[in-house]
Amino acid sequence: MLHRRDLLKSAAAVGSTAVSSPFLARSAQAHEVTLDVLYAFPAFAKFHEPIAQEFMKQRSGIKVQFRAPAASYDEGHQTMLRQAVTNQLPDVYYSGYHLLAELVRTLVKRNQITEVAPLLQKEDAAWRKANYSDGILALGAVDGNIYGLAFNASLPVIYFNTQLVKAAGGDPDKMPDNWPGMIDLAANIKAKGTDVAGIAYNIHDWPDDWLFRSLILQGGGQMLDASETAAGFGNETGLKALSHCRRFVADAKMPLIDWDSSRQQFIAGKIGIFADTPARLRQVTDLIGDKFTLRTCTFPIDDKQKGGLPTGGNAAIITARDAAKQQAAWEFLKFVSGPEAQKIVVETTGYMPTNLRASGPEFLAPFYEKNPNFRTVSQQIERAKPWQGYPGGQSVKIWRTQRETVHAVMRGETTPEAGLDRMVRESNALMKSS
């Protein structure tokens, strides 16, 4: 893991004569620069499009053109790896944090990515300090160098139906802060209503390992051992995580349906507790309307001393080869990670802002005052940890293999003990095979 003092080793020496936006100094553009941009998840057009429109209003010489969005971070990652070989990369790409290191290392070998630290060097030091914390910059760092700027950032949160929680004897103001307590409450919700389920924790069909990793990290565990070459969850923490997964179904009667169906059931008032990314908070809030009172609370932590949470989301990287496009892409990265764009992201979704100024009175403070559910994710920022992939370039395949076993445990076809043994063996084998 990077130490903060190492993050800006090449960006620390910012000269007093640095220009805040050198690209803006060129008042007249010889011709329009068009940026080819790729992001994941089609539903995220709801904030990518208005941000691009606002950017183009302010940067008349730059046009942003989006490719068809990738279905997920994993699908986008595979697309980028293929297009690196065929030299068909976009100019800007939003990489999931858990796949960033693998992608960057691949692109560095082919000289197909622009390092961000030298670009930060050219910016005013006061501007950088006002907008980005070292922790936020760390999200875009690989092997001690910064290659991307954090765009989206999230930690898992709990959505819950206040009426169902009260009916089950729970207190919406004092939700359980550990998983045994949360599962017990979910079981009570189920016991009080024959047509409702206690909880939905859709780990069994999640497109990446974020929800599984959350259960490991919150219990004080690690995904890799000290050597970072083998699974580190083949222990009591991993066993508890899989035991929780089984209890979701056995005790709280979680329906093993896909995430979209779970979301629809929760919105209809048929599920009491719903674990999800805050990125969909706006959508869920609007769809619930006045059906019931929606609340959010922080993710339960079993190990209060060592427990953490993986930071989900993505960082924007520059893969343009043309010098003019690289400079235009840098202006775009600064804008999308700036307070105006982050305000759009947060209000449209529920993500944490990745810009220090964004939470201030000029931008999000009034919104948070009126919408306290959106504040929940930021209340667990001290638990945030990097979401790192596996070594060897097999992260996508490793999770898809692990997910099959998690699903089998949840169905009761495999015990947590046997499932854990299989997951560790298969994960290690895939890491070694690469």
From TrEMBL:
Q: Which Pfam families match?
A: SBP_bac_1
Among its keywords, does the record have Ribonucleoprotein?
A: no
Which family does the record claim for this protein?
Belongs to the bacterial solute-binding protein 1 family.
Name of the protein in its database record: ABC transporter substrate-binding protein
Species this chain originates from: Bradyrhizobium guangdongense
The UniProt record lists the keyword Nuclease: no
The record's listing under CDD domains reads: PBP2_UgpB
Keywords linked to the UniProt accession: Periplasm
- State where the protein is found: Periplasm
Q: Which Gene3D superfamilies match?
A: Periplasmic binding protein-like II (3.40.190.10)
**What PROSITE patterns is this protein classified in?**
TAT
Record's superkingdom?
A: Bacteria
| Membrane-spanning ranges | none
Question: In the UniProt record, which is one GO cellular component term?
Answer: periplasmic space
